[in-house]
Automatic annotation (TrEMBL), chain A:
Stretch forming the signal peptide: 1-22
Originating species: Streptomyces koelreuteriae
Keywords from the UniProt entry: Signal
Matching InterPro entries: Bact_solute-bd_prot1, SBP
Gene3D superfamilies associated with the record: Periplasmic binding protein-like II
Protein name (database record): Sugar ABC transporter substrate-binding protein
One Pfam family of this chain: SBP_bac_1
Automatic annotation (TrEMBL), chain B:
Subcellular location: Cell membrane
Swiss-Prot/TrEMBL keywords: Cell membrane, Membrane, Transmembrane, Transmembrane helix, Transport
Annotated TM spans: 12-30, 74-96, 108-129, 141-161, 182-207, 244-262
Organism whose genome encodes this protein: Streptomyces koelreuteriae
Main location, first listed in the record: membrane
Domain ABC transmembrane type-1 per the UniProt entry, residue ranges: 70-262
Membrane topology: Multi-pass membrane protein
Name of this protein: Carbohydrate ABC transporter permease
CDD domains attached to this UniProt entry: TM_PBP2 (cd06261)
Family: Belongs to the binding-protein-dependent transport system permease family.
Any one Pfam family match given in the protein's UniProt record, by short name: BPD_transp_1
InterPro entries for the chain: BP-dep_ABC_trans_perm (IPR050901), MetI-like (IPR000515), MetI-like_sf (IPR035906)
Species classification: Bacteria, Bacillati, Actinomycetota, Actinomycetes, Kitasatosporales
């Protein structure tokens, strides 16, 4: 994108003009702006309906629905925060909050939220939005990575179908994908355009940790045995066994769907919410099912970055904003939001709702995985975005494509990675 | 220089291949816009939808205020184009005609500005517009677009001005025309194609702009088309492909039409003055 020096000059001139700052938004009654990132039709409808219900029952505290966009949300919010024009109630993802929380842009919700909401959401979910001593967002929706499988293909092959109670081990998973492969078909298609979060989050199932916080609070990268199980499995499937399609390694999740529907791959590992696209796009009669991701020494554990609701530090009516969040996240409402986004609610009561326990579209498998979800390993590691972009993404891409071996991968993740992280921890 | 028949065939074949390459994204967008969801997930996609549908267009219009957003884009882009041309034209005349240090400095400034990191501008710009109470307003966005388009407009128009022989203005002066009369009656008509091309360039730039609009416009009724298009995209780039393609196809049409009109003039404007006569 082009930039313009004249714009800077204009900016400086106008700054020198010293115009007055903006005033309050209130006109007798409180008005709160709620920026939602809901984008699927049902999800937008659910959000708007809830805002309407709130406004109907709270005439003194009006909420305005503002449609946000996942695209560039970080830059958009950062600009709005810097300019003192941020929305009062902010929808985002927990892995985007650290900078805003440490930057003082978000309100600490510790004393603003009611006990009902605090106790309804498990501690492990709160950890995704806890930075230092404060809580800077309410985690409310999350999605595990699951295996979406061609049910007919699996049945005909005679392999054991895994369940959340008895999942595949990573070794068994590798054997099965190999068994399902051959004659131009693959047992699995890994969409690894973004290999870091997929690898790290799934590695929790094998006891991987990668980031280790020392007694001095500093974080270092150690790529140990437990961290290596998932990448080695994927590497072997794509390179040695020929059971993973090599062409999808650089693809996004949606890109694998045509091949999946066309019978080229038996399984694709995708986020739980992809089921909506599958329902929409699958050919008539296509028989699919949701399977849990493989388990290791850590069981079915995997990392997630939940969607969150936060309150801007500049919001003059934090108590009212928190009350709206509480309303939005009452169990029945949380269920509506979860159904709209095809995701799992974090709240225990919402999660027990029969609508989310049905076997249709794999809901029951997803809800069974909810208790195994933990904060993504890098949630609170400062410098993680740079480590991910400059070190881990290219290193993992090269490893999965076979360009480098495990030793080189380890060297780069640890040596190059620790140099990057050290800069953020001086 | 004469070319042989086989060479000409080769040239036209290469040109045709290049045109097909350029048209591919647009034609694919058009095809996708008319496909039902099940065809979007096909392993063997076809250019012509087997079961064409208008549902994607219906859904796009139902879900997002596309017409309103298009109107906002149109107002912002038109206003930006007009204002940018009004400011850039006299500036370009001075830069092209006066070979002073100031004119050279302005030209240098324009060149340097092309490489200036965009992201550094947005926060101070936001603060200024906030103080001017122009956040979440189309005039505020127009101001940004004008500033954004001005350097290239100035550069482009200066080329056109240089192409007008100074002798024509001198002849008009000899005939007794004053400075203003010379500019209005002699120079301006000759600059007209360049002014139109520059204006349309500014229009297209503003019509397609996304990030400023995303940051500066907060309420749905003020948002422009590129911002509304992103509402069809979810986290991690997952997209509601059918409605997105339908909306993007509609959003592309004005740019294509405008560009079809101006492309020859833009090329002419860039090349004007490149060779000494």
């Amino acid at each position: 994108m082009r930039a313009r020096l004249p714009a800077l000059a204009l900016v400086l001139l106008l700054l020198l003009a010293g115009c007055s700052s903006g005033g309050t938004r209130d006109d007798g009654r409180i008005t709160l702006r709620f920026q939602s990132l809901a984008w699927q039709e049902e999800s937008v409808e659910a959000n708007k309906a809830l805002v309407k219900e709130w406004n109907a029952t709270h005439p003194d505290i009006r909420v305005e629905y503002v449609q946000g966009s996942w695209d560039s949300v970080h830059d958009q919010l950062l600009t709005a925060f810097e300019g003192g024009e941020a929305p009062d109630i902010i929808h985002d993802a927990s892995d985007d909050l650290a900078d805003f929380a440490y930057g003082g842009y978000l309100a600490d919700l510790t004393d603003l939220l009611p006990a009902r909401l605090k106790s309804d959401i498990p501690r492990r979910s709160w950890e995704t939005t806890t930075f230092g001593d404060g809580v800077y967002g309410v985690p409310f929706l999350q999605e595990p990575r699951v295996l979406i499988a061609n049910a007919k293909w699996l049945r005909q092959s005679g392999v054991r179908i895994p369940t959340p109670e008895k999942p595949w081990s990573w070794a068994e998973f590798r054997r099965i994908t190999e068994r399902l492969s051959g004659r131009g078909k693959y047992g699995i298609a890994w969409p690894l355009k973004e290999p870091v979060s997929a690898t790290l989050n799934l590695s929790l199932s094998t006891g991987g940790q990668l980031f280790h916080r020392g007694a001095n609070g500093k974080v270092t990268v150690r790529f140990g045995e437990a961290d290596q199980v998932v990448p080695r499995t994927i590497h072997a499937q794509a390179g040695t066994d020929g059971s993973a399609s090599p062409t999808t390694l650089g693809s996004g999740g949606s890109d694998t769907l045509p091949g999946f529907f066309g019978g080229r791959y038996a399984m694709v590992p995708l986020g739980f919410s992809y089921r909506q696209q599958i329902v929409q796009q699958a050919p008539k009669g296509f028989d699919w099912q949701v399977l849990p991701a493989p388990a290791g020494a850590g069981g079915l554990t995997q990392g997630v970055s939940p969607q969150t609701l936060s309150v801007a530090e500049d919001c003059p009516h934090k108590k009212e904003a928190a009350a709206f969040i509480d309303f939005l996240l009452r169990p029945p409402n949380m269920v509506r939001l979860a159904l709209g986004d095809w995701m799992l609610p974090t709240g225990r009561q919402a999660l027990s709702d029969p609508a989310l326990r049905t076997s249709e579209h794999g809901w029951a498998t997803g809800t069974a995985l909810a208790e195994h979800l933990r904060p993504a390993p890098a949630q609170t590691v400062r410098g993680y975005p740079e480590w991910k972009d400059k070190v881990a993404t290219p290193a993992l891409q090269e490893y999965y494509s076979g360009a480098i071996g495990l030793g080189a991968l380890r060297e780069r993740l640890e040596e190059d990675g620790n140099l990057v992280l050290a800069r953020y921890q001086r | 220089m004469r070319t042989s028949a086989p060479a000409r065939v080769g040239q036209y074949t290469a040109l045709l291949a290049y045109l097909v390459f350029l048209a591919f994204p647009f034609l694919w967008l058009l095809s996708t816009a008319f496909k039902p969801p099940r065809e979007l997930g096909s392993l063997h996609p076809t250019w012509i939808p087997k079961d064409p549908t208008l549902d994607n267009f219906r859904q796009a219009f139902d879900e997002q205020p596309l017409l309103h957003a298009a109107l906002n884009s149109l107002v912002a882009a038109l206003a930006a184009a007009v204002v940018a041309v009004l400011i850039a034209t006299p500036m370009a005349y001075v830069v092209a005609r006066r070979r002073t240090r100031l004119a050279k400095a302005v030209t240098g400034w324009v060149v340097v500005s092309q490489a200036f990191p965009f992201v550094l501008l947005i926060i101070p710009l936001f603060l200024v517009l906030k103080n001017l109470r122009m956040i979440n307003s189309v005039p505020g966005l127009v101001l940004v677009y004008v500033v954004w388009a001005l350097p290239f407009a100035l550069w482009m128009l200066a080329g056109y001005v240089r192409a007008v022989p100074p002798e024509l203005e001198e002849a008009a002066a000899v005939d007794g025309a004053g400075r203003v009369r010379t500019l209005v009656s002699v120079t301006a008509p000759l600059l007209a194609p360049g002014i139109v091309a520059t204006g349309l360039f500014a229009f297209i730039t503003a019509w397609n702009e996304f990030f400023f609009a995303l940051v500066l416009l907060k309420t749905p009724e003020k948002q422009t088309l590129p911002v509304v298009l992103t509402h069809f995209i979810g986290a991690e780039g997952v997209a509601d492909l059918g409605p997105l393609a339908a909306a993007a196809f509609l959003a592309t049409l004005p740019s294509l039409v405008v560009f079809a009109i101006i492309q020859r003039r833009i090329t002419g404007g860039m090349l004007t003055g490149a060779v000494k006569s």
